[in-house]
Amino acid sequence: DPNLHQATAQFPSEHASGAIAAVMAPGYAIGDRTLRAAMVAVSSGQAEGGQTSGGSVDVEA
């Protein structure tokens, strides 16, 4: 949901295409109001050959 998440990266992973694969920074909300959207990395599906690449994503801020 673009109102709750801000996609900052995309990489191949074992998750389905378009699924959130990692959270880079948490989001904040009060009730139904979003104060800051969560910064997330989104999966692009599996890499060619069905295996994920050897790269990594640093999820520590």
Succession of helices and strands: EEEEE
Percent of residues in helices: under 10%
Q: Count the helices. How many?
A: 0
What fraction of the residues are assigned to beta strands by DSSP?
A: 35-45%
Identify the strand order in the major beta sheet.
1-5-2
Radius of gyration: 13 Å
Give unreliable regions as ranges.
none
Number of strands: 5
Overall, the morphology is elongated
**N- to C-terminal distance:** 22 Å
User: Structural class of the secondary elements?
Assistant: mainly beta
Average pLDDT level: 80
Query: For the report, how would you describe the main beta sheet?
Result: 3 strands, mixed
What can you see in these coordinates?
This protein is mostly beta strands. It has a domain of 42 residues. Helix content is 0%, strand content 43%. It is built from no helices and 5 strands. The strands form 2 sheets. Strands 1-5-2 form a 3-stranded mixed β-sheet, with no helix packed on it. A two-stranded antiparallel sheet has the order 3-4. A hairpin with a 2-residue loop joins strand 3 and strand 4. The radius of gyration is 13 Å and the shape is elongated. The two termini are 22 Å apart. The mean pLDDT is 80.
